[in-house]
Amino acid sequence: MKQLPIIHSPIDAYPHQAALFSMLMGKPECLPWVYSNFIQMYSLRDLHLNKKRTGTLDFFYNLYGDWKYYELKTNPWLLMDATPLLLFNKYDIDIVDHIRACIDSEKYVFFDIDMYYIKSYAAYMKQHMPHDIFIYGYNDIDCLFYFGDNTEGKYHYRTCTYEELKTSVTNLIDLYVSGNEKYFIHAWREKLFYTFYIKQNTARNGQEKIFELDTKKISCEIKEYLLLTPYADKYIHSKFYVFGIDCYKEIFAFIDHANEHDYFVDYRALYSFMCHKKLMLMRIKYTAYLFEDCMNDYMLLIEGYEKVLSLFQQALFILIKANLLRRGEIFQGTNSALKQAMELELRILPEYCAFLDRES
């Protein structure tokens, strides 16, 4: 039996987020880099019209698009390998043995399964659906894998049997080999088996500073998030994406559109936005030691941002209630709470930047 170290990720809107943060945030040496990144937000423009991707609001965007797993592939803390899933079929590789060998080599595993065959998922024996599974351990006594995924509408840490996983992957690969993907909504999935090993991944000498806390970078990227002049210049010309503080507008429009047309509101985008606030609050608290000479003023800043997170939690609760009761006036309560949060952010984050700029 072996389990690699993880924490229950505080950032868990999407499986790729939860997998990454459950690995990195359990290691104190990784925290300076984590808090120096994941600041800018992006959303699809006119999110309410993108029916297939209504949850697309995330962070760690790259300038060329929201490529799948970009924040994993470019992470300097992760050594990553990728193997085509089809090779397991072609060379008759036992995936259970392979995963166990990866875990024994201190490598976390991340790849697609079909939720239809695994009991821990709400889709079990109901719907064929590929999904990212994050495996961090195994138990030969009970023949179980330990994994994390969005199993029941929320990210959980669960177990599945060796046989369940093998059946799931075998059937998924058979569909990929046959080219018959009619049961799957995401035919574009990468069909790769990823492994991750946590280690400072620098190809050249002199790059060690990227792993340190960078207050100048944090301040700059917060100003980019706030779309302040001139920091907004590279974010305001995209035809496909909306960035930073303007993501609020996408949420407002999304909720208004759903209310007007009596749609069920996909809350994933709002939940991801809330995770961004949670991480920002953790960042502000983490950097507090830098400002011990003015701690009273800094504590007021922390208290203010705690209110931002509280308003997001309130907005999410209202949205879930509105989805259940289908009453328009309740939907408006979500936007009201979010508008208060936006106004607080516009006041608090420049104050935080002033602290950081003094330190830089």
Describe the structure.
44% of the residues lie in helices and 16% in strands. It has 360 residues and is an alpha+beta fold. Strands 1, 4, 5, 6, 7, 8 and 9 form a seven-stranded antiparallel sheet that branches. A three-stranded antiparallel sheet has the order 3-2-10. Helix 7 runs antiparallel to helix 11, helix 9 runs antiparallel to helix 10 and helix 10 packs antiparallel against helix 11. The N and C termini lie far apart (47 Å).
SSE layout and pairing:
Blueprint (H helix, E strand, L loop, with lengths): L1 E2 L11 H10 L6 H5 L5 E4 L12 E3 L10 H4 L4 E7 L1 H5 L4 H10 L3 E7 L15 E10 L4 E7 L4 E7 H17 L13 E7 L16 H11 L15 E3 L3 H15 L6 H19 L8 H31 L2 H32 L1
Antiparallel strand pairs: 1-6, 2-3, 2-10, 4-9, 5-6, 5-9, 6-7, 7-8
Short description, anyone?
With 360 residues, the protein is of the alpha+beta class. It has eleven helices and ten strands.
What proportion of the residues form beta strands (DSSP E)? Answer: 15-25%
**Cα radius of gyration in angstroms:** 21 Å
Average residue pLDDT: 92
Shape, per Cα inertia axes: globular
Question: What are the segments in which pLDDT stays under 50 over at least 5 consecutive residues?
Answer: none
- What is the number of strand segments? 10
Structural class: alpha+beta
What portion of residues is helical?
A: 40-55%
Described by strand count, sense and barrel closure, the largest sheet is:
7 strands, antiparallel
Q: What is the count of DSSP helices, taking H or I runs of 4+ residues?
A: 11
Order of helices and strands: EHHEEHEHHEEEEHEHEHHHH
End-to-end separation in angstroms reads 47 Å
